[in-house]
Design goal:
15 strands; 12 helices; alpha/beta; disordered C terminus
Length: about 350
């Protein structure tokens, strides 16, 4: 083994690492590519030898030989929204366990932008895609189907996934949240949605509308927020709500960020929550239980959704999971102080 200055080895091979570790080159390769298949002792010896020799694994050469890049692509509507952060962590944790690298891209809630992003990423030959959402352009769907690359869609439901699905019924979840508010006695329930074509947001609005219609509460009242990731958009909505006569007795928001912005704005105006107006959100973000009053919300298993999507994708890439697999995730209605609810969280499956 030739030595460079500072003791770092030049041109170190996998065989060199194997000799230092006292194992076969095949074992070294397995530690690098499939670490979960190697016992802890062998793994530790190989990792110590890699550090000692300064060996750098050549991913390009490996991908050419195996026809796999060791990369999975995660496509998000936005990286600005905290609602997706736990799902990203779930994907990342599973990818790390399987020695797979994750790359991310955002679409800004635009189907045309998603099409461009996926077309560009396909040129980099990822082993698979995890995509938030099930609504795509025809061209995007055709690109993915023709590529033969495994795809797992998530955060929404559809009977016709491109490949596999880790689903969530946004319609059922928001309908259940609205029904819970009706059961608490609220009758003038306003909903904060969005004018964008985001299907998940549309399905939540439809769930709200269905519950209002079934309860016989008249015409639904929907207000659109400009920025779904901003508490300030919640403040703007709160100001509009406060000026209405008669004023709604409850405000149901598309997500917890908007709900928190509205709740804090109502308090600054001198309105009590829930005495003057109740507030509820969607997502079950960590801060929701720490607000005062604590925020009623739809609790989504965000981390588990990312984790399951990654596990399903790894299975598809390895050939151990069949195409067309579907897993529907559940949700919980967390009734808290912002709607006058103090009883324990109720479980609700989608």
């Amino acid at each position: 083994m030739r030595q460079k200055r500072g003791g770092r080895a030049a041109g170190v091979t996998m065989e060199d690492v194997a000799r230092v570790a006292g194992v076969s080159a095949m074992t070294v390769s397995r530690v690098l590519r499939q670490p979960t298949l190697v016992n802890a002792d062998l793994k530790a010896r190989v990792e110590a030898a890699i550090r000692e020799t300064g060996y750098i694994y050549n991913l390009v050469a490996s991908s050419l030989a195996s026809q796999r890049s060791g990369i999975i692509a995660l496509i998000l509507p936005t990286v600005a929204s905290s609602i997706f952060s736990d799902s990203v962590k779930g994907v990342s944790d599973v990818a790390r366990t399987h020695a797979v690298q994750m790359i991310m891209a955002e679409t800004n809630y635009a189907p045309a932008e998603e099409e461009k992003v996926i077309e560009a990423l396909l040129r980099r030959r990822p082993d698979g895609f995890i995509i938030v959402g099930v609504s795509h352009t025809r061209a995007t769907r055709a690109l993915l189907e023709k590529s033969g690359v495994p795809v797992v869609e998530t955060w929404d439901s559809t009977p016709t996934p491109i490949d596999s699905l880790v689903g969530l019924s946004n319609f059922d979840a928001m309908k259940a949240m609205t029904e819970a508010l009706v059961a608490q006695g609220f009758r003038r329930i306003a909903f904060v949605g969005t004018a964008t074509r985001d299907r998940r947001a549309q399905m939540r609005a439809k769930g709200y509308e269905a519950a209002i219609a079934e309860a016989g509460l008249g015409a639904p009242l929907i207000l659109n927020a400009e920025d779904l990731t901003s508490m300030d958009s919640g403040r703007v909505i709160a100001e509009r709500i406060a000026a209405m006569r008669p004023r709604p007795d409850a405000l149901l928001c598309l997500n917890d960020v908007l709900a928190a912005g509205a709740l804090l704005a109502f308090q600054r105006m001198g309105l009590t929550v829930p005495g003057d107006i109740a507030v509820a959100g969607f997502g079950g973000l960590d801060f929701s239980s720490h607000l005062s009053p604590s925020l009623t919300t739809v609790d989504i298993p965000r981390y588990e959704m990312g984790q399951k999507a990654a596990e399903m994708l790894i299975g598809r890439i390895a050939g151990t999971a069949a195409r067309g697999g579907t897993c529907e995730m559940g949700f919980r209605i967390a009734l808290r102080e912002s709607t006058g609810g103090s009883r324990p969280t109720e479980a609700k499956a989608s």
